[in-house]
């Protein structure tokens, strides 16, 4: 499919530098106007369609965007903008790219950024591509005038698919309560180099990341109050704000046992039956031992006092009755009388 494309980007270049323009583009008074005819059906499906805009470094790569700067460029999968110094970034600056697999701003700086500058740009992993990414990256970009002095509550309201958020080395001292509530896919947060103003309200995120399975991968230290200067936010929160265990925060109601642990009703039931079973087994063992002793005592009741048993007479000492056969080992003496040999 052939597309007629018009790309207009305002670039302020040094007057002493030679202007190099790509084929299909014209240049006049700092404005490049490019009119292309692209046949997208000839694209190699083994490679993502990628657009790279690399500005001249050394102060010659100033760029001003408009809402229609990238009209008809929605067929690109990966977008890279390198070393560009944006003098302005109005609302919907990149909306004409639509949904992309990868978008990055690398180097350069950004000034006068509208809060809706990224409105209309969707970054989503494209499983049909050889390298599905679903990644938005800002690498070594200077935010003029020096970072984020404050974080608006709705700053991440449309970033529902972001999994990793890095806000390192910014001048803000706290973030609004529940700012991550609109980011269900968030799994990792880094906020290194922040001078935290430590209060129980400002450190709400400590409980939030723990309760929502989010990894907080950076160190965090307090600047205020002065009594906690240089100490970790964890130290402040655990000593000042921690009110014990949150036994009602789980899916199953639980009971707080003196701030030591939380036990659900099912766990308590199991432990009670285990204790009853232990004592029951002990009682059964004691009863078995007692019964065995009683049976042993009853077996010896027929013995005479003193432990002496009656003697049995040896058969060879008993005189045989008349007419009876002599026992083995006896002989008949003369005269017909029989005596037993001792």
TrEMBL record:
* Gene3D superfamilies reported for this sequence: Ribonuclease Inhibitor
Compositional bias segments (type: Gly residues): 296-305
Alphabetically list the UniProt keywords.
Answer: Membrane, Signal, Transmembrane, Transmembrane helix
Q: Please list every transmembrane segment annotated in the UniProt record, as residue ranges.
A: 268-289
Where do the record's region annotations for Disordered lie? 295-342
- What SUPFAM superfamilies does the database record attribute to this sequence? L domain-like
First and last residue of the signal peptide: 1-18
Question: What InterPro entries does its record include?
Answer: Dev_Immune_Receptor (IPR050328), LRR_dom_sf (IPR032675)
The name this protein carries in UniProt is Uncharacterized protein
Organism, scientific name = Batillaria attramentaria
């Amino acid at each position: 499919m052939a597309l007629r494309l018009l790309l207009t980007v305002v670039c302020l270049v040094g007057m002493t530098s030679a202007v190099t323009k790509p084929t299909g583009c014209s240049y006049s008074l700092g404005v490049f106007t490019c009119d292309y005819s692209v046949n997208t059906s000839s694209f190699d499906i083994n490679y993502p369609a990628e657009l790279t805009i690399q500005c001249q470094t050394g102060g010659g790569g100033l760029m001003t965007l408009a809402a229609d700067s990238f009209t008809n460029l929605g067929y690109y999968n990966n977008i890279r903008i390198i070393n560009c110094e944006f003098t302005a970034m109005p609302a919907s600056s990149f909306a004409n790219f639509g949904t992309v697999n990868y978008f990055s701003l690398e180097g350069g700086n950004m000034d006068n950024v509208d809060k809706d500058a990224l409105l209309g740009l969707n970054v989503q992993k494209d499983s049909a591509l050889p390298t599905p990414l679903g990644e938005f990256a800002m690498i070594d970009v200077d935010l003029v005038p020096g970072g984020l002095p404050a974080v608006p509550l709705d700053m991440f309201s449309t970033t529902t698919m972001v999994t990793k958020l890095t806000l390192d080395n910014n001048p803000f001292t706290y973030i609004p309560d529940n700012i991550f509530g609109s980011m269900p896919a968030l799994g990792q947060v880094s906020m290194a180099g922040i001078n935290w103003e430590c209060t129980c309200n400002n450190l709400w995120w400590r409980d939030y990341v723990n309760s929502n399975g989010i990894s907080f991968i950076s160190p965090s230290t307090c600047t205020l109050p002065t009594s906690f200067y240089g100490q970790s936010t964890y130290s402040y929160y655990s000593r000042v704000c921690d009110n014990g265990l949150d036994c009602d925060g789980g899916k199953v109601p639980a009971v707080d046992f003196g701030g030591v642990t939380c036990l659900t009703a099912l766990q308590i039931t199991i432990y009670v039956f285990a204790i009853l079973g232990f004592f029951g087994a002990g009682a059964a063992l004691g009863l078995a031992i007692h019964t065995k002793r009683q049976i042993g005592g009853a077996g010896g009741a027929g013995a005479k006092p003193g432990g002496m048993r009656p003697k049995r007479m040896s058969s060879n000492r008993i005189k045989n009755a008349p007419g009876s056969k002599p026992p083995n080992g006896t002989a008949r003496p003369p005269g017909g009388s029989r005596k037993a040999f001792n």
